[in-house]
Amino acid sequence: MSPPPWPCIELAPELLEWACGELLCVPAPVHVWHWRTDFEESRCASLLQLLSPAERDKAASFRFPQDRARSLIAHAGLRRILGAYLGLSPEGISFAVTATGKPCLADAAAVSFNLAHSGAFAAAAVSRGRDIGIDLEQIRPGPGLGGIAERFFSPAERAWLESQTGQWLEGFYRLWTAKEAILKAAGTGLAAPLDQAPVRPGADAPPWHLRELDLAGGYAATVAFSGAPAPLRVLTPQG
What we know:
The chain has 239 residues and is an alpha+beta fold. The chain has helices at residues 13-22, 53-60, 65-86, 145-152, 155-162, 168-186; strands at 30-36, 95-97, 103-105, 111-118, 121-128, 132-138, 209-213, 219-225, 232-235. The protein has 6 helices and 9 strands, in the order H-E-H-H-E-E-E-E-E-H-H-H-E-E-E. The radius of gyration is 18 Å and the shape is globular.
C-alpha cells in the first residue's frame, strides 16, 4: 500500500527522481524543498502513522489545532522527502541526534538535512557530505524585536540593520534567519550565543556559505552549508 498523501499535496515522481539523481553529483548540490502546512487538523490523521512517537508527542504538545496540524505536516513532509532520496518508506526513516542534539539520519550519515517551519510553510534543506542548516520565519512585528536586536546582534549587525531605511522589520528577520541557519548547521542551535555567528545579509560567513531564499511573500529564509560552493535548487512538491 502506498503511503498516504499530504493533505492536498502529492509529490511529483519525476521531480523526485531528478532530485535523487542530482544529489549524487560532485560537488553535492543543496536542495531546498518548501511546502504549505496550513491544513485542518482533521485532514491530517492519516499522517500520524508516518511519524515516530516523539514526533507525535511534539505535535500533540501544541495548544491550538492549527499548530498541531502544521507540526504534523512539516515532519511528515520531511519523512516523505528523505524517504524518496533513500529509497525507504516515510515511516522507515530512523533519526538520531548528534552529541549537541542536532537531528541526523541514523543509517545514512552521508545525507544531511535540516527542517524549519513557521506560519503556514515548512522548508527542508537536503545535501550530501556537508553540514547544513535552514531557518524560516514569518515576518511579523513585535514589541520586543528592538530589544532582541540590542541583545543578540553585534554592533556591525545593528549598524547594518539601522541602515535599512523603511525595511527594518525585513532586515531584522534577514539577520535572524542567517544567524539561526548557521547555528543549526553547526548543530548548536540557540545553545550557542548568537554573537558567535556574525553575519551580513547577502554575504558568506566563512566557513559557512549563506544563501537567502525567497520562498513566500511575508517570510524570510536562509540556508547555511559547509564545504565547497554548491548549486542551490529550490523545489516545490506539485499538487
